[in-house]
Specification:
By secondary structure, the chain is mainly alpha-helical. The protein is about 35% helix and about 5% strand. A two-stranded antiparallel ribbon has the order 1-2.
Length: about 70
């Protein structure tokens, strides 16, 4: 059930998620190589300093280096 890269499963799943959530604000946590994928749905990166405190605390192990931890929000 792993799927083959480029088969569209992730794109289809995210399409359904976004459609079903309606006007709910969605937040995605992405490893850096998926930032462009999420951007194609209209998501935008948020600077670490602008993240809610609860999110910053969750990634406190990155010690201000979320990019070095290969994470983007």
């Amino acid at each position: 059930m792993g799927g083959i890269p480029g088969n569209g499963y992730a794109r289809n799943a995210l399409d359904v998620l976004i459609r079903e959530c309606g006007n709910t604000v969605l937040t995605m946590y992405a490893v850096l190589h998926l930032v462009d994928f999420y951007a194609s749905f209209g998501f935008v990166p948020v600077p670490e300093k602008d993240l809610p405190l609860t999110v910053r605390e969750r990634y406190s192990w990155a010690l201000g280096d979320m990019k070095g931890a290969d994470v983007c929000r």
